[in-house]
Design goal:
4-stranded antiparallel β-sheet, globular
């Protein structure tokens, strides 16, 4: 069973930057998809960025141009660089892995393993 451990996050002012990292406990078999989701108060877990094992990425329109997703397969690591943060980016962020998939779904129920979550708070 893959364990995902997140680090990073915290509090920052509007316009600031933060970086999130997610390390998998073992090499993840291909094909796979790694993604970042966020959950603000409310029922929905929103996909922020997706990156499959072929290197194809998808960034949500709400963060496009401000967030960058990357993965280091040798280190089993997924990162999310968040720049020009806005108050509406405040949420708990989760990394996730879907196994045996080539295309990355935006649906959280399609993911097999999840990180513990980390809070990002952006204040004005």
């Amino acid at each position: 069973q893959v364990k995902l451990v997140q680090s990073g996050g915290g509090s920052v002012q509007v316009g600031g930057s933060l970086r999130l990292s997610c390390v998998a406990s073992e090499e993840i078999s291909v094909p796979n998809c790694m993604a970042w989701f966020r959950e603000a108060p409310g029922p929905m877990r929103e996909v922020v960025a997706r990156l499959n094992s072929d290197g194809d990425s998808n960034i949500a329109d709400s963060v496009k141009g401000r967030f960058t997703v990357a993965r280091d397969r040798a280190r089993n690591t997924l990162s999310l660089q968040m720049d020009s943060l806005k108050a509406e980016d405040t949420a708990k962020y989760f990394c996730a892995v879907a196994l045996e998939v080539g295309r990355c779904s935006p649906r959280p129920d399609r993911y097999d393993y999840w990180g513990q979550g980390t809070q990002v708070t952006v204040s004005s």
